[in-house]
Amino acid sequence: MKKKFAVGVIIAMAIAICISACGNDKKVKTVKKVKAVQTENESEVNDKINTESKVEDVNKSFGAYDMTKRILPKVYIDCSDEPSKEQYCDASVKIIDESGQYENNEKNSAKIKIRGNSTANAHKKPYNIKFSDKQNILGMGKSKKWCLLANAFDPTMLRNALALELARKTRLQYTPASTFVELYCNGEYKGVYYMTNPVNTGKDKVDIDVKKKDYLIELETRLDDNENIIMTPVLKLRFEVEEGNMADLTYLNDFLEKFEKSISGGYKEVTKYIDWDSFVDYYVIGELLKDVDFATSSTYFYIKDNKMYAGPVWDYDLSMGNASEIYPYYVNSDTTKDSTTEFYCNKFWYFYINQIPEFQRDVKARFAALQPVFENMTTDNELGPNRIDAYCSVYKDAFARNYTIWNVADANSGGEKTPLPSYEENVEFLRQWIQKRNEWLKEQWLVE
């Protein structure tokens, strides 16, 4: 037993050294201009985009939890049975914040089950928690439902965090609150998890009122039997109604029909039905981070007060180059064989909206305006230390502990890129992929 413990300590120290060695290229390029499609009122639109692109509080937090606190919160779950995917089991949950930033959540009654589709088959299981009463977890707001994402397909464990953090710096109205924690289940250490709200509705969430004919919908291409599935009237796209009145779909069908027909009418017609800014920003995030699931699942929209909004962002573990050859279109098997190239999100509604000149213009302008934020993901700049190194530095001890019980080089599914042998190598692949992807998009969208 002591020998096993000693080996674990040595491995943890080695991984910690690798994580702390994550370097970065501190060269920062300046965005000088954007060459875009010329249309009427372009200067007025660009002024609006540049004004709205200011990033607030970029160094304060990576979500709800203050990253200056280096001790991760601990989640202790005691289960009556072994959690399964099929049904919830009774549990008590205690959350301890040793940093003292937030009040501890003493043992609360809850139910827990394994969550996810492909991720449920990984060795490191993700979980859904359903409390008996709403709980304010680590300052992230009150909710009964919480997720513990295992990030088993992402050897860096950073992709979901980077994606959600980036979304918070855009004009998307809502991004799930989230933070890293360390999980113990029935006294056994389970590793580092990403605790977050699921995508649902309510105060401090997707703020819609289903009584006023508001809806939350998710693009869903899996052909599972589901009574909440609808088909859009014109383009025949398959969506799951996550929240809304399923008893009377007259309004929803009518709205979607008018919206899909309006796309051919151009900017003035389509903006009667969609929130233009959120559609632009959601597309920019999608193209930069290149999530495998874009336009297949985990692609959300919501209708509020007769307008449809894009978002929120969700499920980015298979993004930023983390995809295998089973996705030939993603890795460009027939062309460049380089996943940092080619457009990926020009699909479903966006295939048609992308043909509107004003959309192309605003995407390019928005992409240019957000360059400091994009570059700060990988490189120190005027916004401060880069985000990848910040995560590695602040959470290096916890990440090292995680990889004393899990193997960083394990491939948990056929979907993710084959992991590299060390944590450091996987982090550097992520950094370089984002940098190369950003440079490729700058060339395509004529951003200098």
How would you explain this protein's 3D organization?
This protein is α+β, with helices and mostly antiparallel strands and 448 residues long. Among the domains are: 123 residues, no CATH class; 154 residues, no CATH class. Helix content is 31%, strand content 19%. It has 13 helices and twelve strands. The protein has a seven-stranded mixed β-barrel with strand order 1-2-3-4-5-7-6. α1 packs across α12, α2 packs parallel to α9 and α6 packs across α9. It is globular, with a radius of gyration of 22 Å. The N terminus is likely disordered.
Biggest beta-sheet profile:
7 strands, mixed, barrel
Going by helix content, strand content and strand pairing, the class is: alpha+beta
Please give the alpha-carbon distance between the first and last residues: 58 Å
Approximately how much beta-strand content do the residues carry? Answer: 15-25%
Q: How much helix, percentage-wise, in residues?
A: 25-40%
Q: Order of SSEs, N→C?
A: HHEEEEEHEEEEEHHHEEHHHHHHH
Rg result: 22 Å
Counted by DSSP, the helix tally is: 13
Poorly predicted regions are 1-21, 23-64
Features:
globular; alpha+beta; disordered N terminus; seven-stranded mixed barrel; single chain; five-stranded antiparallel β-sheet; 448 residues; 12 strands; 19% strand
